[in-house]
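Help needed: design a sequence for this.
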């Protein structure tokens, strides 16, 4: 067999490989810029549109969750109902006497998320486990008072006349006090389904942080909304 018929070896030394590589004509191989007419393709930076939508939805959800705190803060500003202080709704003991005189008498309506002052006899005091908090019931009205930083002081069966102010919360619109509802219903047979809890000492100005959070969430929605519109327009 002639030498020219011998098959080309599968392996070659480095010098031979380098010589053949540099002798090739590479002018016809398309470069990275040829597909766009010599201009590099635009870089696609930033987040995925789905991530922007998720941030907007989550921010809107947080705004909704903290809206009542913001509304309570606003009630103490400008012409708000609590701008001059808590709304005094009277004494529950007097309501009882008025009702005995006139069966058509109705006590003032309790309004959710309002800053009020109320007086009355209290009973059914109970201490929260492992904390300096207590709950008690105002007699004659479906109103429970949440006391904070209160050392144990009075027996549960001792009637005490108390004047207290704070934030009023409708128990049908929150799950925070579900344990308190079950406790009073099971141990004292007291109604809690259509009742209220007053968080003693909670003033509208204590919630100054709520509008700041709302503003921050609104900024997140605005930024991501702008980026999403730009991404959809460029896409």
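Sure. Designed sequence:
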């Amino acid at each position: 067999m002639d030498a020219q018929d011998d098959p080309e070896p599968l392996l070659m030394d480095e010098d031979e490989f380098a010589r053949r590589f540099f002798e090739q004509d590479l002018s016809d191989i398309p470069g990275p810029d040829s597909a766009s007419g010599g201009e590099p393709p635009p870089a696609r930076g930033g987040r995925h549109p789905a991530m922007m939508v998720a941030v907007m939805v989550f921010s809107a959800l947080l705004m909704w969750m903290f809206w009542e705190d913001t509304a309570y803060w606003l009630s103490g500003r400008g012409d708000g109902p609590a701008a001059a202080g808590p709304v005094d709704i009277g004494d529950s003991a007097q309501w009882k006497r008025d009702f005995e005189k006139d069966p058509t008498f109705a006590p003032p309506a309790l309004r959710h998320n309002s800053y009020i002052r109320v007086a009355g006899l209290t009973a059914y005091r109970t201490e929260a486990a492992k904390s300096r908090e207590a709950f008690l019931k105002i007699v004659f009205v479906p109103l429970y008072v949440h006391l904070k930083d209160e050392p144990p002081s009075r027996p549960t069966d001792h009637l005490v006349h108390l004047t207290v102010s704070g934030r009023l919360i409708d128990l049908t619109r929150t799950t925070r006090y579900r344990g308190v509802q079950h406790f009073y219903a099971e141990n004292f047979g007291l109604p809690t389904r259509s009742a209220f809890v007053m968080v003693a000492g909670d003033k509208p100005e204590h919630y100054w942080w709520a509008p700041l959070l709302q503003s921050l969430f609104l900024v997140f929605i605005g930024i991501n909304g702008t980026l999403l519109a730009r991404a959809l327009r460029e896409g």
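The chain has a mean pLDDT of 81.
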